[in-house]
Design brief:
The chain is an alpha+beta fold. Helices cover 22% and strands 43% of the residues. A hairpin with a 5-residue loop joins β7 (116-131) and β8 (137-143). The radius of gyration is 21 Å and the shape is globular.
């Protein structure tokens, strides 16, 4: 009888720990967009836009320049809670260093056929887009008008 009490107590503790862990995970993942990082070179300014879910780059338009960049993505949110969050609309504050050029970063999850990440620029710019190495980010490189060197959407590795 004592062994059964010990087994039931252990099972109850494990269930409580699992419930607490699930609750904490839901709090962390209550948004699709997680952060935006900034880096610059002599040739370009680069932003890395992070997602709380694995995200796959699909396409972007216009192709290489404009005042607005629309990036089609597939957010691979798992489960019922993830699907609920990926259909929302939200935005991130542009980095201070990039605010003179980038006006807004907006995620629109309710667009058909797939979600769109929009970057609104304050003037027409030339850009390139790439999938982040972690599959939780997209990288956008904006060429400087008189920049020297090659402008590629590559964000330096951070430790």
């Amino acid at each position: 009888m004592r062994a059964w009490s010990l087994i039931l107590a252990t099972a109850a503790s494990a269930a409580c720990a699992f419930a607490l862990q699930s609750t904490q995970a839901a709090v962390v993942r209550d948004q699709v967009l997680s952060h935006v990082d900034y880096f610059e070179t002599s040739a370009c300014q680069i932003v890395k836009i992070g997602f709380n879910f694995p995200t796959r780059y699909v396409a972007h338009y216009p192709f290489d320049h404009g005042t607005e960049l629309r990036i089609e993505v597939d957010t691979l949110a798992s489960g019922r809670d993830g699907a609920q969050f990926e259909r929302r609309r939200e935005s991130l504050e542009p980095p201070r260093e990039f605010a003179d050029l980038l006006a807004a970063i907006t995620y629109e999850g309710n667009v058909v056929p797939r979600p769109i990440l929009t970057l609104a620029f304050r003037q027409s710019v030339s850009f390139k887009v790439a999938q982040g190495d972690d599959f939780r980010s997209l990288i956008v490189a904006v060429a400087r008008p008189q920049g020297s060197g090659v402008c590629e959407p590559v964000f330096p590795a951070t430790e």
